[in-house]
Design a protein that fits this description.
With about 425 residues, the chain is mainly α. The chain has helices at about 15-45, 45-75, 75-100, 100-105, 110-140, 145-195, 215-225, 230-245, 250-255, 260-285, 290-310, 315-345, 350-380, 380-400, 405, 410-420. α2 (about 45-75) crosses α7, α3 (about 75-100) runs antiparallel to α5 and α6 (about 145-195) crosses α12. The protein starts with 12 loop residues before the first helix and ends with a helix. The model has no long low-confidence stretch (mean pLDDT about 80).
Amino acid sequence: MSKKDPYESLRIKEFRTFLLLRFALVFGWSMQFIVIEWQVYTITKDPWSLALIGAFEFLPAFFMALFAGHIVDQKEKRNLLALCIAAFSIISLGLFFLTWPKIVSDWSTNTVLYGIYALVFFGGFLRSFFGPTIFSLIALIVPKKMYPNAATWSSSTWQMASVLGPAFAGFSIGWIGVHWSLCIIFGLVILSLIILFRVKKKPILNPKIGEPIIQSLKEGVRFVFKTKAIFGAITLDMVAVLFGGAVALLPIYAQDILKVGAEGFGVLRAAPAVGAFLTMLITAYIPISKNAGMKLLAAIFGFGICIIVFGLSSVFWISVVALFFYGVTDGISMVIRQTILQLKTPDHMRGRVSSVNSMFVGSSNELGTFESGLTAKIMGTVTAVVFGGTMTLITVLTTGIVSPSFRKLDLTKDLEEHEREE
């Protein structure tokens, strides 16, 4: 193959527009989650309340995922994403209202908490649509031969936004408070909606429009389970994310263990962003299609090590370094997994395959938050984080031993086939 241009997908104007809207949307969403975590923990001082936030977002996202994938494969992607973003703006506005000083002082604590949990639940419902819609839209914007490069930039954009958003949230809580931080989030959501309409409507490539929903869902699940590369990548990442949710406990570390306050909380949240940025640079220049299986295993193993180091640390700078490498390894893992999904999934099944991925991996972020909060309540915070990192290491070693075909996974031939199709 000829030498690759690390910026080839960025030369497509519509893809650059897509990355901008994705950054704004993910930045706002992840910032919102952290602001709410901080507010709820400040009110309750109970790790269980953090677990509930994860549970309320996980449940609708998980149980709606397959149905959302079916709908995404049947509908036009640009307008469907616009509808989702508009609904998300209502959630942001509702949270802004619930943190209004007068509301907080006049309403009971439980009423405010129940309102927050209800909006988080609605957000979980929306999340089941976001992942499949965005995944499908990328494939309609860039040519197939650019999928690995587009996956690198898209995943890196997501990684940067998902860590910079919480980092900024930590600083903004200290500067302007929870209420006005949520106002910024609402503005970002509206901005992403405006940017989206610079992307043209896309054709529906599914030849089975109107297919019975049960048959459609069975076909999607069957495809994932019989495609070993996809199933292996999803399963491995799911367990790692589930037991590696250390960052969900950062409010506890910042307030009670490291004692660094809202500003220190922002630094801790920013550390993985630096690692994610380094990942973006490296993966854009260095191909990840060759020996993809071993690279994914190594990345998640490193992810587990970083979690254990962070969990045991009581020194601020050691915690920051551990979170930096947490961002590096998580970013590499995400880029490889997204490349596997893009290369191995046919166009007409992207919504359903992405939904299964959301059930296993996307929802496990929220379930991981629940697991971290629950184990912190039962075991103590430090023990819970170390336990999660250890389970991640065990998962990687087990996968490497029992699945030699996954260890040998190489995407070079798949990429060459897509280039010949172009």
